[in-house]
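Margin note: ligand = protoporphyrin IX containing FE.
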Amino acid sequence: MAVLGITVALLVWVATLLLISIWKHIHSSWKLPPGPFPLPIIGNLLQLEPKNIPKSFTKLAERYGPVFTVYLGNRRIVVTHGYKAVREVLLQYKNEFSGRGDIAAFHAHKDRGIIFNNGPTWKDTRRFSLTTLRDYGMGKQGNEQRIQKEAHFLLEELRKTQGQPFDPTFLIGGGPCNVIADILFCKHFDYSDKTCLRLMNMFNENFYLLSTPWLQVYNYYSQYMKYLPGSHRRVMKNVSEIKQYALEQVKEHHASLDPNCPRNFTDCLLIEMEKEKQSSEPGYTLDDIAVTVADLFFAGTETTSTTLRYGLLILMKYPEIEEKLHEEIDRVIGPSRIPAVKDRLEMPYMDAVVHEIQRFINLVPSNLPHETTRDTMFRGYVIPKGTIVIPTLDSLLYDDQEFPDPETFKPEHFLNENGKFKYSDYFKAFSAGKRVCVGEGLARMELFLFLSAILQHFNLKSLVDPKDIDLTPTTVGFGSIPPYYKLCVIPRSR
Ligand code: HEM
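Resulting structure:
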């Protein structure tokens, strides 16, 4: 009897929760964009393919239009799809949609630093970081020289492979890693340095794991999943170890700081912290600076490194494109001078190839999640404050009107009929607006200079027939992750 009573009570309880949840949903969503009906607790998980959430968004856009709502866990998410809607979110409603949506695996960085900051310190931290990065990017010891200097080390490492097969992940990654390490700490790692390899391994592992179905689901259901074992624990452990490394660097810099003579980005933030201590405003702590530095370190390394690695694989699949690049490099730069930024103007083919690599690989397909900073009237809908907003980037990069045959790698997508570089406003691989990538200028310079330097000195050699190279990413989620491969680089004889 007692068992029956408990069962009935439980059933009534569950039914009541269900009704409350449905009622809450109907009540709160009557002015929201359309979307599939969510189930209690799981929301619209059944309508999404955790193996490829960006692709599920594209399918939902076909059904519900360019602005639609989905629910994951207890999160309300508005997705925008296609040039007009994404542009509107990023550029016309730039303040309203400039918050940062929660990323559960990065709670250690939440509301600090730049990337995962949805708090009051984001604006100032971002502004100050941008100004400082700009200062370090210009002048005689600016980014161009920094990258050129690093290109020499990278070429030397490539020579050491002596035409034998190697995994490019950490060898190529050493280039971007050292460029940002120089800006942040004036550090140059040897390509076999254990600490550097460990850091790059963690950046790489996190980017991969964050793109797997488990972490995609974890991001929205962390309240239920956080006690479970699984790869989310690995990501969080890496996040914490990277932050610990950054904190050690920040403390070392603090101990030897000369306020009149900043040596690098970290010193500049420390000087700012000391200045703020003298005012009554609560300012940065060493821990906040460590988060900012860690943000820049992994964002500055992993994105550019993955783009270069994916780019080399693409060029091996299309030897005729590699051949055209060799021809352009030989004509404009010649065999010995290191490539320079000014060469880009005379190298429309390389410029187009770099853009096409970024378009085709679609590195961050669903962008980073944004969040509404206030109740916002958008296209006749009312989107409440605190709603996650996803301005998808793949919907622009794979637009079949702007880039006919978007699934095919074609540098011609960025060339006009005279072979000149053709700008496209749909190229938003770095996003746009208030949250636009802080490292866009640096990344573009690195991609052009590193790729030109590599192809100036080497022919790429695939271990399999180019026709058999499969460019499909191994997993798509937070990022599009290139397949694992090895290659040989053969010194060019001219
Ligand atoms: C190929 C290279 C890169 C790509 C494709 C890329 C792409 C992106 C994207 C899509 C975002 C999200 C923008 C948004 O929320 O609307 C972003 C943000 C960011 N990126 Fe990059 N990025 C690259 C390289 C870099 C580099 C080299 C750095 C550092 C120097 C960097 C630092 C950042 C930071 C700090 C943010 C956060 C901005 C904010 O929340 O205010 N990125 N990036």
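The chain has a mean pLDDT of 94.
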